[in-house]
Design brief:
heterodimer; A: about 200 residues; mainly alpha; Four Helix Bundle (Hemerythrin (Met), subunit A); about 0% strand; B: about 350 residues; 12 helices; NADH_UbQ_OxRdtase_su1_CS (chain B); NADH_UbQ_OxRdtase_su1/FPO (chain B)
Chain lengths: ~200, ~350
């Protein structure tokens, strides 16, 4: 009973905050509601017994990705009132996309609910006596290791691409080179000059 | 909690676990009051001052006097501030600082929630800690807090990466994510602690584990915005960073949260590297001491070191901070993870 109560509270919070993401007037608040939605989704994962996924969701999405969102939204001075003006003209298209997604979700949901097909939908059920993380690790690193590594490579290429796009060598800036600072010796940096009184360096 | 339910029934069990949590919180807060005093006393001693010495014997009650002062003052919310978020930020910092303690094992079986993913839980909660600061800085609607919160967020996100890799290396070594099991694997003597780990791995592993401990220590300083990485507060440039507009109880909550996070990092270092509740050597006079005392002593030692760092080291420049995090710690800890995995595979194959 406690689990059912937790499920309804978490899903209600998730749905409400997802709604607030699109309806909040202030963009920073939208992002904060998005974070709340992520967080409730993580709670739902815990209820499903997928605690590893829940923690990863919090660490990656809430702890890193949403921080960057918040950064951008806080620093950009976007006039959201102007963005909202096209709301009615975009409504039919947006409504259509939402409808299609709702139908697809309902189809997936019906697959899960019917008892005979539920086991089929679960490709590899968690084996008995093995923790969630070990089961996931076994699947990722034993059965699908090639795809896992390929996914990593794709991410690496994306990262290199992002760096190449933003890397700019500016001329004339002074950079700190710690290696050079450490390698500096007394001989090359200090010069003792014997100046006669009243003559100056000349 | 499940043990309580089987022992005292559903209602009694729930009450017992609430009592357990409250008791732990009270112990934490009282210890925190004295650790805060220790911090100030160490700082003063290094600078040849006396430090707080008026309230109570040797100034022992100074923290409680400060507490009373903060609570009794008026809460001021700036006119341009986003009121709900302005008050939410310190609450978030405070609550998040407490809930990560739920999985820290202080003695055999003395843990509120013995999670299977304990270390990931701590990591997740500490990555949430940045929100208290960002929201606080933004909701103040003022320049210095905003700049301070931006700095702090960038800093915390950067150093979380190297903390994460150090934790991964330890996990590879221990083979579990449960904090109690990590501590249990370190029993028998100080040479078995993960900072040396001479029983599990061939001796050259020491060349990885000791630098990992150092990286974790320095990253913990940066993660908790402690000197020499207290750039978000940098009073000479930003007045006091994200806390400028805060006064009275909200400020107190920020400060308690910050210090509690520091102590949490000390506890994590104790659990991950220094053998948790285990005595340094398993011989009678040392094993008579209760495990929780050993745990507290190690946390105390780590906190003393952090306090000394605050007193001794000048503040880093911001670009130096970022360079240290991304160009020094990140590659080093990444290489250490790879090497450590190699050691573990090698020693398992040999055994």
């Amino acid at each position: 009973m406690l689990q059912a109560a937790a499920f309804y509270v978490l899903s209600a919070v998730a749905i409400l905050s997802a709604f607030m993401v699109v309806s909040a007037r202030n963009p920073v608040r939208s992002v904060l509601f998005l974070i709340l939605a992520f967080f409730s989704a993580a709670g739902l994962f815990v209820l499903l017994g997928a605690e590893f996924l829940a923690m990863i969701l919090v660490i990656v999405y809430v702890g890193a990705v949403a921080v960057l969102f918040l950064f951008v939204v806080m620093m950009l001075d976007i006039d959201f009132a102007a963005l909202r003006q096209g709301f009615l003209s975009y409504l039919p298209l947006g409504g259509l996309v939402a409808l299609i997604m709702a139908i697809e979700l309902a189809m997936i949901g019906s697959l899960w609910v019917s008892a005979e097909t539920a086991q089929f939908a679960l490709r590899s059920p968690t084996p008995e006596g093995v923790s969630n993380i070990e089961a996931l690790g076994a699947i990722l690193y034993d059965d699908y290791v090639l795809f896992f590594q390929l996914a990593g490579l794709v991410l690496l290429v994306a990262m290199v691409g992002a760096i190449v796009l933003t890397l700019r060598h500016r001329q004339g800036t002074k950079r700190q080179d710690v290696g050079r600072q450490v390698r500096r010796t007394r001989e090359e940096s200090v010069e003792v000059v014997d100046i006669k009184s009243g003559e100056g360096i000349g | 909690m499940n043990d309580f339910v089987t022992e005292f029934g559903p209602v009694g069990g729930a009450l017992m676990s609430v009592a357990q949590i409250l008791g732990f919180m009270v112990v934490l807060l009282v210890s925190l009051a004295f650790l805060l005093l220790l911090d100030r006393k160490v700082w003063a001693a290094v600078q040849l001052r006396k430090g707080p010495n008026v309230v109570g014997p040797f100034g022992m009650l100074q923290s409680f006097a400060d507490f009373g002062k903060f609570v009794l003052k008026e809460i001021i919310v700036p006119a341009g501030a986003d009121r709900p978020l302005f008050l939410l930020a310190p609450l978030m910092t405070f609550v998040l600082a407490f809930i990560s303690w739920a999985v820290i094992p202080v003695a055999p079986g003395w843990v509120i929630a013995d999670l299977n993913v304990g270390i990931l839980y701590v990591f997740a909660i500490s990555s949430l800690g940045v929100y208290g600061i960002i929201i606080g800085g933004w909701a103040s609607n003022s320049k210095y807090p905003f700049l301070g919160s931006l700095r702090s967020a960038a800093q915390m996100v950067s150093y979380e990466v190297s903390i994460g890799f150090v934790i991964v290396a330890i996990l590879v070594m221990a083979g579990t994510l449960n904090l109690s099991e990590i501590v249990e694997a370190q029993g028998g003597g100080f040479w078995n602690w993960h900072v040396l780990s001479l029983d599990m791995l061939p001796w050259p592993a020491v060349l990885i584990t000791i630098p990992m401990f150092v990286i974790f220590f320095v990253s913990a300083l940066a993660e908790t915005n402690r000197p020499p990485f207290d750039l978000p507060e940098a009073e000479s440039e930003l007045v006091a960073g994200y806390q400028v507009e805060y006064s009275s109880t909200p400020y107190l909550l920020f400060m308690i949260g910050e210090y509690l996070n520091i102590v949490l990092m000390c506890a994590l270092m104790t659990v991950l590297f220094l053998g948790g509740w285990h005595a340094p050597i398993d011989v009678p006079p040392l094993t008579w001491v209760p495990p929780v005392i050993w745990f507290a002593l190690k946390v105390f030692l780590m906190f003393f070191m952090i306090a000394m760092v605050k007193a001794l080291v000048p503040r880093y420049r911001y670009d130096q901070l970022m360079r240290l995090g991304w160009k020094v710690f990140l590659p080093t800890s990444l290489a250490a993870v790879a090497l450590m995995a190699g050691f573990v595979v090698y020693s398992n194959a040999g055994a």
